[in-house]
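Fold this sequence, please.
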Amino acid sequence: MASLKNAVRSLRITPKVTMKKTVALIIILFLVAVVAFWNCGSSGPKIVLDPESHDFYETARLIMTGQEKDVFNHILDAESRREFIDEFWAKRDPDPDTAENEFKNEFNRRIQYANQHFNEGTPGWKTDRGRFYIYLGTPDKTDEFLFHQEPDVRGPILWWIYYDYELGLEFVDKNGTGQYSFRYSTGDLFGAMESVKLGVLSQSGGGPKFINFNSKYDREKKEFVISLPLKSLSFKEEGGVLKTDWEFFFYLYEKKGTKVDRFEQTRHFEKTEGELAALKEITFSFPYELKPGSYFLDVKIIEKGGLVKTRKIFEVKG
């Protein structure tokens, strides 16, 4: 964490001539943010949305994956869109066994907070600070510099620090009008934003553990294959055997937006310690006859009685 603080501190005191060297990186990061936040113009729905779907898409598109936008933007009827909306929130629910969807509630709270605190003549959720707040929540630390050595910036320079994400975000009030624009970040900003789109609203150790995994469709065997990295998993030991149980949730869509199928499977895994030591990953297969075509496969995995709850979307061909 000291490295992050040092990076932020060094950026604050870097001479103007040195800052010029970071212009290219600043532009790249800014464009990444712009694309992530505002890529709702040309990719927006080509159909007239019913009021419920419109209200949902207006803000939820901020945390939609690119694949989810592709699917939603091609759904023609309101009933199918309602089903999509229900599943959209259900996939992100950190504790499906309770009536409350903590992810959805926290997202709506952040929208409300952004509107109350970051209004700059436009709704707060549409401002740079508001949108980053929706993604990352309350900063662990803020630094505001009313006096600085940048003559091109008439207003304050603001830093938001997130220790869990190992991120620092810089905003500048360039014209001194109270309108802040994002200018720079330290850390993996894109990765943090992508994790939120898949259902992570915090990187703190107290929540579910999200892991990276792979999926493919084996046309010859007619089955989906899921591979989980062994180094990210934990097991229960019983009589010298290491065991774990998993729940798999599959959502299959045609690329044109039509939902094809939704199904659930459970799998049990057990190996001796010696057998496990020879593996780098564990794999599970799920027989399925996929018709020719291009699809999005949305996979959610939950470890029974454990911390792992992860999700990922794949492009597959039948």
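Residues 214-317 form a domain with the Immunoglobulin-like fold (CATH 2.60.40). The first helix runs from residue 2 to 13.
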